From TrEMBL:
The chain crosses the membrane at residues 12-31. This is beta-lactamase. Residues 55-216 form the Penicillin-binding protein dimerisation domain. Keywords: Antibiotic resistance, Carboxypeptidase, Hydrolase, Membrane, Protease, Signal, Transmembrane, Transmembrane helix. GO terms for molecular function: beta-lactamase activity; carboxypeptidase activity; penicillin binding. Pfam families: PBP_dimer. It comes from Pricia antarctica. It comes from the Bacteria. InterPro entries: Beta-lactam/transpept, PBP_dimer, PBP_dimer_sf.
Length: 220
C-alpha cells in the first residue's frame, strides 16, 4: 500500500476513534444524569415549578358588649379558567351557555365572555381571569355553571379564595375597631380593638401547593 494511502487510513482510524470516544462520553453522561442523578434533577425541577404558599387565616369575629358585630372575616373568590384542560368538543359545546350564565350573574354581555374564553383557548392560557371579588353565594353558583360544573380537570375551573375583613357598622366604629397587620418577619402592628385582642382573634395559617405555569404565574 502506498505511503499516502497509509497516512489517509491512519487519519481515518484516528478520527473514527475520537468520534467513538466522544459518543461514548456523551452516552455515559446521559446515563449518569438519568439513572445516577435522576432523582436529584427531578427534585430540582419540582422546586422550580412547584411551591408551597401560605394562606392567611380567618380572624375571629369582634363584638361590642351589647352583641353588635364590629368586625368579621368574609371570603371573596376569584374565578380563572384553564383552557388547556378542556377538550375542543366540550369547549365548543359549552362556551355559549357558559357565557350566558356568566353574563346573567356578572352583568357584562355574553359576547364579552365568549371573546375572553375563545382568546384563552387560542392562546392556551392556563390562568385566564374571568371574575374577581365574588361572594360565597356567587362562588357556589359559578361551580354549577355549564362546563365549570365538570371541575378543574375537565371544566378548567380554577377557584382562588381570600379572606377580607369587613366592618358592618362602617366608619361609625372604624377608629375604635382599628386593624392589625403582620410583616414578613412575623411582627404584628396595629391599633384599636383589633390590635388589643389580636392574639385571640388570629387564626392558624394554612398551606397550598401551587404550580408555576406560563408567564411566571402560579396556579393552585
Amino acid at each position: 500500500m502506498p505511503t499516502n494511502d497509509k497516512n489517509i487510513m491512519t487519519r481515518l482510524y484516528a478520527v473514527s476513534a475520537c468520534m467513538f470516544l466522544f459518543a461514548a462520553a456523551v452516552l455515559f453522561k446521559l446515563v449518569n444524569i438519568q439513572v445516577v442523578q435522576g432523582d436529584k434533577y427531578k427534585e430540582l425541577a419540582l422546586q422550580l415549578t412547584e411551591k408551597m404558599f401560605t394562606i392567611a387565616p380567618n380572624r375571629g369575629n369582634l363584638y361590642s358588649d351589647d352583641g353588635s358585630l364590629l368586625a368579621t372575616s368574609v371570603s371573596r373568590y376569584t374565578i380563572r379558567f384553564d383552557a388547556v384542560t378542556v377538550s375542543d368538543a366540550d369547549f365548543k359545546k359549552y362556551i355559549v351557555p357558559l357565557s350566558d350564565a356568566l353574563s346573567d350573574m356578572l352583568g357584562s354581555s355574553s359576547s364579552h365572555y365568549q371573546q375572553v374564553l375563545r382568546k384563552a383557548k387560542a392562546n392556551k392560557n392556563r390562568y385566564a381571569l374571568i371574575a374577581r371579588n365574588l361572594d360565597y353565594s356567587e362562588y357556589m353558583a359559578v361551580k354549577d355553571f355549564p362546563l365549570f360544573n365538570r371541575g378543574p380537570y375537565k371544566g378548567g375551573l380554577i377557584i382562588e379564595q381570600k379572606t377580607v375583613r369587613e366592618h358592618p357598622l362602617g366608619k361609625i366604629a372604624e377608629r375604635s375597631v382599628g386593624y392589625e397587620n403582620v410583616d414578613d418577619n412575623g411582627y404584628y402592628s396595629g391599633v384599636g380593638l383589633e390590635r388589643a385582642f389580636g392574639e385571640y382573634l388570629r387564626g392558624v395559617e394554612g398551606k397550598r401547593l401551587k404550580q408555576k405555569i406560563a408567564k411566571g404565574q402560579w396556579k393552585p
